[in-house]
Design a protein that fits this description.
mainly alpha, 3 helices, 83% helix, rod-shaped
Length: 88
């Protein structure tokens, strides 16, 4: 009564094989294997993307300030043009 004996396990396997057949069981095993493989690949890709996202977070602030310094200041004529565009 402690558990399933070897004979009981063999009888259950025999009944399952008789019910489903070997082709269906082989296909089921292949589908299950590919699902586990896909899950493992997705988990490893997720870990790689998380590491990549952490690397992307490091940026240089100097690049932002350089672009700001390169911008040309607006002239009074530019201000008038933007006011005219706002009215439309």
């Amino acid at each position: 009564m402690a558990g399933i004996s070897v004979w009981q396990l063999l009888i259950v396997v025999l009944i399952v094989v008789l019910l489903f057949g070997t082709k269906k069981l082989r296909g089921l095993g292949g589908d299950l294997g590919s699902a586990v493989k896909g899950f493992k690949n997705a988990m490893s890709d997720d870990e790689k993307n998380a590491a990549k996202d952490q690397q992307d977070a490091d940026f240089e602030q100097e690049a932002l300030f350089d672009k700001k310094d390169q911008a040309e200041p607006l002239t009074p004529k530019d201000h008038e043009k933007t006011k005219d565009n706002d009215r439309v």
